[in-house]
Amino acid sequence: MSSRGPAPAKAVVIHRNGDHFFPGRRFVVTPRRFPTFEAFLDEVTQSLHTPLAVRNLYTPRHGRGVTGLGDLRDGGQYVAAGTERLKKLDYLNPGRKEPHGTRKSEGLQCRCLAVSPISRRCGNTGYSHALGCSSCSVFRNGDLLTPPFPLVLPKRIPLEWDTFLATLTEKVDLSSGAVNKLCRLDGTPVSGGEQLVDGHHYVAVGKEEYKHLPYWELLVPQHPACRTLGYV
């Protein structure tokens, strides 16, 4: 008889049902950490801050239900829901939505609201440039499981820094509470919107100290085009 070793760990990304702007949260699933499927769903409920307890997981494209830990595929992405049906959205491309704007002969023009200088839409850098906006991505301090949160910022509207940090607090959802500062990947604080560089990555920090971790190396797909971003 040959003895079987422990089941291999599986890394999966879970999205919130009906939330088109949530980038998904990464979980590492092992039998020791989650002995049952119910234990895993309870952890997903707490981590995703869903209003109702998560009781179902679905595949994002075809809506197939996941009935147990054995159905999870390493590297797979799933949508967490309560008792409601799966809301069919493009979860694999969060935030990609037809932009609000006015069609003219030269194309779409960006309409950024002065009340809320941070757009919730995300897109690639070229798309942002076409709309007269710049984009950056924000990691959560000390979190090596969650992908960076994408932000699109209007170039022509002055960025109120306190408003920016308040919006980050709402969107990034730090476990330590409010976002007190934004840091470059080397830990240097950013003190104003004029210091934000289009296409770069930053870390949202609360009351705690900045944690020097390999955010970019572990959480950003290492395609050749992405390698040029590096550390700021």
Automatic annotation (TrEMBL):
GO terms under biological process: intracellular signal transduction
InterPro entries found in the cross-reference section: Doublecortin_dom, Doublecortin_dom_sf
Any one GO cellular component localisation term in the record: microtubule organizing center
Superkingdom, taxonomy of origin: Eukaryota
Doublecortin domain residues: 10-92, 134-216
Signal peptide residues on this chain, from the entry's feature table: none
Keywords: Repeat
Name of protein: DCD2B protein
Gene: Dcdc2b
